[in-house]
Amino acid sequence: MNKPSDAGTLATVPLWIDNRAQPALSARRGDVTNPATGKVTRQVPLANARDVDAAVASAKRALPGWRDTPPLRRARILMRFRELLVAHHEELARLVTDEHGKTLPDAMGSVQRGIEVVEFVTGIPHLLKGEHSPDVGSGVDTYSLRQPVGVCTGITPFNFPVMVPLWMFPVAIACGNTFVLKPSEKVPSASMRMAELLKEAGLPDGVFNVVHGDKEAVDALLQHPDVRAVSFVGSTPIAKYIYETCAKEGKRVQALGGAKNHAVVLADADLDFAADALIGAAYGSAGERCMAISAVVAVEEVADQLVAKLKHAAGKLNIGPGHDKGVDMGPVISRAHRDKIAAYIDQGVAAGAVAVLDGRGFSVAGHDAGFFIGATLFDRVTTDMSIYRDEIFGPVLVVLRVKTMDEAIAMINANPYANGTAVFTRSGGAARKFEREIEVGMVGINVPIPVPIAYYSFGGWRNSLFGDQHVHGPEGVRFYTRGKVVTTRWPDDRALPAGFNMPTLG
Ligand code: NAD
User: Fold this and answer.
1) Cα separation of 260 and 387, whole Å?
2) Does the pLDDT at position 453 exceed 50?
3) Does the beta carbon of 425 lie inside 6 Å of ligand 1?
4) Is the distance from CB of 233 to CB of 465 less than 8 angstroms?
5) Which end of the chain offers a freer environment for a tag, N or C, measured as fewer CB atoms within 10 Å?
6) What is d(CA 291, CA 387) in angstroms, rounded to the nearest whole number?
7) Burial level of 23, CB count in 10 A (0-12/13-18/19+)?
8) Is any atom of ligand 1 closer than 6 Å to the C-beta of 235?
9) Residue among 152, 175, 246, 290 flagged as catalytic
10) Across all residues in the chain, what is the average pLDDT?
11) Any ligand 1 atom below 6 A from CB of 393
12) Ligand 1 within 6 A of 218 CB?
């Protein structure tokens, strides 16, 4: 049970139901904290089943009208929403930095990637086009339709308060569905601002709703008979739980989980280029990215040189509050998470890995209560160590040494996570072999964080995604629509004989 830390004096974030801010019925509250100061800034309601019911009922009421709105008109509302997102780009990014802690330029970039999903779905009339085959039999035509699935829900993580919700609801709404978003209770404010902007763009009442909360709200959504499809992004154990529960409840589901992303550095790589790329990919957003590189797999010949370059660059990082100019890396999300990361560093040292840089005990002058931890670099890590096996989700980069690329590929393919990976090389042949043999959903060739652009789909393999469809892009459109095939015949005056055999039409 969450205990409000300063209830009474702090504002409570409302829910968003029927296109307006509404207080929650639930009395449970959580704290929203500024990670750079460690101060609680507002309260968030932890919704109960009655709150969820109200949001789903609103989405259900809105469904018939929205489903029957021509896709072009739906697209025009999303075009206006896109213009409003652009106009409020920095305001949204500031909310991200306030509640998540990442630097403002990084937050701006993440909002931009979300806006690009809205741009993609403004082409929804084209994306929903079906197929048509005339004369599949004498006087018989067949065509396919894609129709909305109904009320959809999105459950999102703390690390991308704007971008990850934007992976989901613009696509769902463009396809004619209505939506209930359950953002991370740690970062609730940006979702509320997006709800206001959707209203300003002309979205009808009930098409988009927001409930805040924890497991209680999530379970109420998963068990609600009127929720037809669930998109989840978060950690692997919860993703698996969401997938299993939805399978039991008969709901369509895509559940994206955690990651341990490897970058392979081959002997012919440009080591300066690779080291620069890896520093940003490992320590950007304090390592709290599902596409962060957290493991470097270096071939032995270049490992010493690479580690020296990584040490030099990581040692110079400017760590501080995300709103300050020139900062490379902000705090992590919470005190508990900072302590968990430090405990992993303890384990790495105890297991015999070489701590080239040790971020424990780091603090920022004037921000002693902030959740800061320094950049950490381990060398000579082995696959049995917890710093390699587990997703740490912090600024901890581990280096493993191998003799050949085949060994690197085997190591990556044996890891339970399979979100993203990268290879650094000057050889087209090696890159091609890597791309074909690696069993990971998103692959970068000399690109450390290969996040697909909005008109491709985003998703990992194995424990990084449970479900069949990736998010946004063409697979997002397929996830939020159901296929239907219509076979038509328009009889003329001739009476058709009754048929008792399997119809062959021709
Ligand atoms: P989390 O799994 O703790 O929470 C995600 C969502 O699930 C939140 O909305 C939370 O309220 C809800 N939740 C938490 N515990 C729950 C429970 N027991 N039952 C039901 N719902 C529950 O994840 P997080 O800490 O917010 O985010 C970090 C994780 O998300 C990392 O593992 C990261 O790799 C992953 N992530 C993955 C992707 C991806 O695309 N694969 C993208 C971003 C983040």
Assistant:
1) 10
2) yes
3) no
4) no
5) N
6) 17
7) exposed
8) yes
9) 290
10) 96
11) yes
12) yes
Rounded Cα gap, residues 52 and 209, in angstroms? 10
Distance between CA 361 and CA 363 in Å, rounded? 6
Task: Return the best residue to mutate from 235, 254, 419 for the ligand 1 pocket (most ligand atoms within 8 A of CB).
Answer: 235
Which residues make Cβ contacts (< 8 Å) with residue 32, sequence separation at least 6?
13, 40, 41, 42, 43, 44, 99, 185, 186, 187, 188, 189
Q: What is the pLDDT of residue 7?
A: 53
Residue type, 349: V
Concatenated DSSP letters of 452-499: PPTTS-B--EETTEESS--BSHHHHHHHTEEEEEEEEE---SSPPPP-
Alpha carbon nearest to ligand 1 atom 43, residue: 290
Residue 290 bears catalytic tag: yes
Q: Phi and psi of 211, rounded to 5°?
A: -120, 140
Nearest CA to ligand 1 atom 19: 215
- 192-233 pLDDT per residue, tens: 999 999 999 999 999 999 999 999 999 999 999 999 999 999
Burial class of residue 368, CB neighbours in 10 A (0-12, 13-18, 19+): exposed
Task: Report the alpha-carbon distance of residue 189 to residue 180 in Å, rounded.
Answer: 15
Amino acid identity at 120:
F
2 Cβ closer than 6 Å to some ligand 1 atom:
no
Each residue's pLDDT tens digit, 104-138: 999 999 999 999 999 999 999 999 999 999 999 99
pLDDT the model gives residue 2:
42
Say what the pLDDT of residue 186 is: 98
pLDDT classification of 499: cutoffs 50, 70, 90: confident
Atom of ligand 1 lying closest to residue 238 CA: 2
Residue 415 CB less than 6 A away from ligand 1? no
173 phi and psi, to 5 degrees? -70, -40
Please, which residues have CB within 8 angstroms of residue 63's CB and are 6 or more apart in sequence? 148, 150, 151, 177, 178
Residue 1 has a pLDDT of: 37
**Residue 25: in which H helix or E strand, if any?**
none
Percent of all residues in the chain with a pLDDT value above 90, rounded to a whole number: 94
Ligand 1 center to 327 CA (angstroms): 26
Tens-place pLDDT, residues 233-244: 999 999 999 999
* Ligand 1 centroid from CA 375, angstroms: 23
Q: Say what angle helices 189-200 and 163-174 make with each other, to 10 degrees.
A: 30
Q: What whole-number distance in Å separates Cα of residue 474 and Cα of residue 174?
A: 13
Which two tokens mark 297?
A: 């797999």
Q: Is the CB of 233 under 6 A from ligand 1?
A: yes
DSSP 302-317: HHHHHHHHHHHHHHT-
